[in-house]
Amino acid sequence: MIKTLQRKFVVTAMTAISVLLILLLGTINMLNIRTVGKQIDAKLEMISRNEGNPDNIPRVPGDMPPREHGTKNDYDTFMSSNFFVVRFDSKGDIVYSDVSRISSVTEEEAKELAEKVYIKNERSGKIDGFEYMARESRMGMGKVVVFLDTSGDIYSYIRVLFLSAAIGIACWFIMLLFVILLSKRAIRPIAENMEKQKQFVTNAGHEIKTPVAIIQSNTEAMELYNGENKWSKNIKEQTVRLNELMKNLLTLARMDESSANLIQSDFSLSQLLTDHIECFRETLELRGITLQASIQPMIFFRANKEHITQLISVLMDNAMKYTNEGGNVFVSLERNDKRLKLQFKNTCRQLPPASPDKLFERFYRADEARTQKNGGYGIGLSVAQSITETYKGRISAEYENGNTIVFTVCF
After folding, report:
1. Residues 6 or more apart whose Cβ sits within 8 Å of residue 349
2. What is the DSSP string of 190-229?
3. Could you say which DSSP state residue 367 is in?
């Protein structure tokens, strides 16, 4: 239980850290993309406004826009950009092209791209890795299209993305190490409290055994002298009930302690299940209950045989107690894709009002009167769940057809 609690703490903490890192790095990358995108638009607007001609950019300090700290002015930005320009006349014919600012595009390729853009008749957009902007010529005759190479900016996106991802992964593993190291300290108060509770149950169980045994033996001695009566019979029934309850409580308390040192062996689960359910057949038939079984032969399982026997006993006893007279009990065992599936189905007069998951809660009673009448303790299914989880399995319950309870154990 302590290891499970520690694992859940680590998983929960790392899930929160992962979400935080994803949001943080995602925000950084989105802001970077947005910022660079605005810079590209501003650069393209400036080059297009000056029609790709540096002579149109004012270089007199008083005529230039004020230069902000850490940024380039228009002329420096212009001279460091890779672009080409194509000019059309009023009839749509190309009259000028300039590819001197880029080496990866020939004049023919520039004209071909310009013609495609001219046909689209759009002011701006993207084509073949270039961002373009078209505007009327300063002289009012024809149109000028500027194509800007943005591959460097795309590489900037990718660099920031991979760098932030690498930093995020490194931080995630560092935080994982810290969380693992701190998890024991974080859950120490809970672990100590659980240990005290477990020790209390163990000590109380051993202390109660003695008076229960004395009460039972004295009742039997009294019956030898006075004969059995309804009061002595009730005393014996309740001492047996209390004794079984303490056994289940001790099983739950010791399950975590013994899980690391269990004596396990390989045994035929098919044979164990077959032999065990046959012990219940006669009792069920006396109540008019039909017992059916579908058990795949030669299924072997490695575990503590006493634990698995107790698991089968709890689920079979639960089915026997709560199946309505004239009802049905169905037990199946099969192995599919290396997964072992054990299932118990039983009909009942009325399904519990709560969800199936609540049936595994300790001391849960769906029907107080019915549970007392049938001798239930409200703890048997908790024992079954604890045994199943000890062997890395999963037990679940579900309702079918309005009158059937199904318990499924998977290993």
Report:
1. 324, 403
2. HHHHHHHHHHHHHHHHHHHHHHHHHHHHHHHHHHHHH---
3. -
Q: Is the pLDDT confidence value at 295 over 90?
A: yes
299: left (phi > 0), else alpha (psi -120 to 50), else beta?
A: beta
Per the prediction, the chain carries an average pLDDT of 83
* Separation between Cα atoms, residue 250 and residue 119, nearest integer Å: 85
Residue intervals in the chain for CATH 3.30.565.10 = 263-410
Q: How many CB atoms lie within 10 A of CB 227?
A: 8
E strands, 217-311, are 265-268, 290-295, 300-303
Nearest to 84 by CA among 117, 42, 130: 130
364-396 tens-digit pLDDT: 655 544 444 454 546 778 888 888 988 889 999
C-alpha–C-alpha distance, residues 75 and 59, integer Å: 7
CA distances from 359 to 246, 283, 365 (A): 20, 24, 8
Tokens of 107: 């004049």
Query: Cβ–Cβ contacts within 10 Å for residue 404, how many?
Result: 17
CATH T-level fold of 263-410: Heat Shock Protein 90 (3.30.565)
pTM above 0.70, yes or no: no
The type of residue at 397 is: A
